[in-house]
Amino acid sequence: MRVALDLLGGDAAPEAPLEAAAGALDAWPDDLSLLLVGPSRLRREERTRFARGRVAWLAAEESIGPAESPALAVRRKADSTVVRGLEAVRDGRADGFVSAGPTGATVVASVLTLGLLPGVDRPPVGAFFPTATGRALVMDVGANVDVRPRQLHQFAHLGSTYLRRTLLIGRPRVGLLNIGVEGEKGGDVIATAHGLLSADPGLHFVGNVEGHQIVTGACDVLVCGGFVGNVLLKFYESMAGFVLEVFRHAGVGEGGELGEALRFLDYTEYGGAPLFGVDGVTIICHGTSPARAIMNGIRTAADCAASGFASVTRTSLARMREGGR
């Protein structure tokens, strides 16, 4: 697998992506190569560190900032790392793309460059949340603030297919995030989505899931709108540091054992989040991602590409449109 990496994406760019690239090449020496996407000066400056056969370079002199309009920036900055990296995936020069740049720009560029899979209205971003029994894939965590029932239905199929294909979970349990377990709870959009999910024989729908049930492992795929999902994501990400600080203030865990125990709450362990529903592999990392998170995002991209995820998802969506037949 060859993964294209955005060297200008993220708050710590280019240092963090470059460190992640070096770490990934050392950690996975046999089955991974990289296409480093960034300014020509970086290739000259880093020629010693990456003087190896499993690295290629793609020049891209522009970056897209978080304050820019995603749609305008993608159209105006054809020489940006996001656009060039995704073009490499489209043209077959890379099997996946990883970026810690602005989420909006990466989503827009992915849709314009790779295209949506048939049957997808809007592509969601999925992220893994730790639970008492393992982890749950939450969709969407920020790409779509306002959603319709049919889009939540699509999110469920996208997440289920991903878990079946990449984690080999035979029948992923799908839950719908809600304020109560009753089917009519949550307003018209959620109640209608509940009906669609309940009637779909292609899904293992376990019903509504309340907030406190997430950590117990009530489902494998948790479906929600991007506004709620993003709030939930950022709350989860703050927990490890918060709990660690509370215990340290009380004089507990000074030897580092507590930090190791809470490692499963660290988002860097999971790396980036896949952008679902596009005809290719895009992994979106947080803008604040350190090298470790980006490195794990590279691994995620390689795994998605190797599993043929986009092709399998296309088939799953076709079945959904046929009513599960």
Secondary-structure element order, N to C: EHEHEHHEHEEHEHEHEHHEEHH
What is the count of DSSP helices, taking H or I runs of 4+ residues? Answer: 12
Radius of gyration, taken over Cα atoms and rounded to an integer in Å: 20 Å
Let me know the largest β-sheet.
Answer: 6 strands, mixed
Q: Which stretches are low in confidence, meaning pLDDT under 50 for 5 or more residues running? A: none
Helix content: 40-55%
Quick check: average pLDDT?
A: 90
The share of residues in extended strands comes to 15-25%
Q: What is the approximate shape?
A: globular
Structural class: alpha/beta
Number of DSSP-assigned strands: 11
Distance between the termini: 34 Å
Q: Going across the biggest sheet, name each strand in turn.
A: 3-2-1-4-11-10
SSE blueprint and pairings:
Blueprint: E1 2-6, H1 15-27, E2 33-38, H2 40-45, E3 55-59, H3 70-76, H4 81-90, E4 96-99, H5 103-114, E5 126-131, E6 134-139, H6 149-166, E7 173-177, H7 187-198, E8 204-209, H8 211-214, E9 221-223, H9 226-249, H10 257-261, E10 273-274, E11 282-284, H11 291-307, H12 309-321
Helix pairs in contact: 1-11, 3-5, 4-5, 6-7, 6-12
Q: How would you characterize the overall build of this protein?
A:
With 325 residues, the chain is of the alpha/beta class. Helix content is 43%, strand content 16%. It contains 12 helices and 11 strands. It has helices at 15-27, 40-45, 70-76, 81-90, 103-114, 149-166, 187-198, 211-214, 226-249, 257-261, 291-307, 309-321, and strands at residues 2-6, 33-38, 55-59, 96-99, 126-131, 134-139, 173-177, 204-209, 221-223, 273-274, 282-284. The strands form 2 sheets. Strands 3-2-1-4-11-10 form a 6-stranded mixed beta sheet, with helices on both faces. Strands 5-6-9-7-8 form a 5-stranded mixed beta sheet, sandwiched between helices. Strand 1 (2-6), helix 1 and strand 2 form a beta-alpha-beta unit. Helix 1 (15-27) packs across helix 11 (291-307) and helix 3 (70-76) crosses helix 5. The longest helix has 24 residues, at 226-249. The chain is globular and about 60 Å long. The protein starts with a strand and ends with a helix. The relative contact order is 0.17. The model has no long low-confidence stretch (mean pLDDT 90).
